[in-house]
Amino acid sequence: MDASAALVKVLREEGPRVLAALVRYLGDLPVAEDALSEATIAALEAWPGSGIPDNPRAWLTVVARRKALDLLRRESAGAGKETAAYRWGTERAKDEIEEVIDAMETESQLRDDMLRLIFTCCHPALSREAQVALALRTLARLEVDAIARAFLLPEDTMAKRLVRARSKIATARIPYVIPSDAELPDRLAVVYLIATEAHAPTGGTRWPGWIWRPKPFAWPVCWWS
Amino acid sequence: MALYVALCYYDRDRYWDEPPETEFSPEYTEFARRATEAGVMRGGEALHPVTMSTTITVSGGRGGDVMLTDGPYAEAKEVLAGYFVLETADLDEAIGWAVQIPAAWRGKIELRPIAPHHA
Q1: B113–A171 CB contact, under 8 Å
Q2: CB neighbours of residue A214 within 10 Å
Q3: In terms of CA atoms, which chain B residue is nearest residue A176?
Q4: Which residues in chain A have Cβ-Cβ distances shorter than 8 Å to B111?
Q5: What's residue A61's pLDDT?
Q6: Across A127-136, A216-225, B58-67, which has the greatest mean pLDDT?
Q7: What is the mean pLDDT of chain A?
């Protein structure tokens, strides 16, 4: 398998987990998303030369964390003051990757991270449309143009909707938490709606065939059932 | 910590026409006391009805003609009746307080995050 095919596979299978762990580490979804994108670009540059790392998830997590810290530093330094781009030496990163593997989130920790992210995307303070779009983008890692097609919307409209949803999470401080027992039934109803909506939209529009691939949707449904 | 303003909306018909002693005062006083004791309350006031409003606009930029209109900016079925400023850790905590404000069951509450000052 070549590097880019491997990357696609890793992103599809591990992307949401890497993202969820990043959100816990950073407490900020937009920065986590940007950092993961930058880490993906770094992987596309590095993997063809260095080969696919033994633990691609750890590699992505480490690089994305570094990128996120760069992003945050750049943000706090103010516009126009760009810090020098950090070059990724595979050797230098190696120790840190070992560290991350050692401290690799346990399965239950990962499940908690994922749950927090699911409930944030499904927070009732976001509109139902925003919840579904955000869940498809953040949890199922669908591309914006694919989500736009599914909603029968122009791509830039969908992109704006996603930006608005992410910025509401940050600005209104929608927390990354698992809801309390009292709130849980309502929230689960929303999660369930998103899962069903994705499979059989009430609008009656058939979703494009690729959305029926069971993989992206199998796990959000299974986590809590 | 984050600051939110809880804007309290009432049906126009349900809000006072004259500014009397309000029947719901004790409930509000009780809410204000609890929120203050919890260190969440950062201020808040009840507003006179919209019939007391004056709407102001300056045309043609700063220093231009001043236009005054008797009444609210937008004639709406629901009117802004008052507000509280709440300081909480996140939106969920703010919602937890907002549901205790009598306007939540007498009307509606809009929670909006307050933008920070940039000096």
Answers
A1: yes
A2: 9
A3: B90
A4: 172
A5: 86
A6: B58-67
A7: 74
Residue with tokens 């909006």: B112
Residue A73 corresponds to which tokens in the numbers above?
A: 């530093």
Count CB-CB contacts under 10 A for residue A47. 20
DSSP strands (E only) in B12-62: 41-46, 54-59
ipTM for this model: 0.75
Q: What is the pLDDT of residues A55-68, one digit of tens each?
A: 888 888 888 888 88
Contact A64, A18 (CB under 8 A): yes
Dist CA A98 CA B8 (whole Å): 54
Give Cα B35 distance to the centre of its chain: 16
**Any idea where the domains of chain B sit in the sequence?**
2-113
d(CA B87, CA B1): 6
Least CB–CB distance from B2: residue in A123, A173, A179:
A173
Residue type at A215 in one-letter notation: K
- Going from the C-alpha of B14 to that of each of A94, B73, B102, the distances in angstroms are 67, 19, 13
Could you tell me which of A130, A116, A162 has the C-alpha nearest to residue A17? A116
Per the listing, tokens 């027992």 go with A181
Tell whether A79 lies on the interface with B, counting CB pairs under 8 A.
no
Band of pLDDT at residue A110, cut at 50, 70 and 90: confident
CATH topology of domain B2-113: Alpha-Beta Plaits (3.30.70)
Record the tokens describing residue A37, joined without a space.
């994108």
Chain B CA closest to residue A126:
B91
Q: Do A173 and B113 touch (CB under 8 A)?
A: yes
Distances (CA, A) of A176 to A28, A32, A78, A120, A217: 9, 13, 26, 6, 21
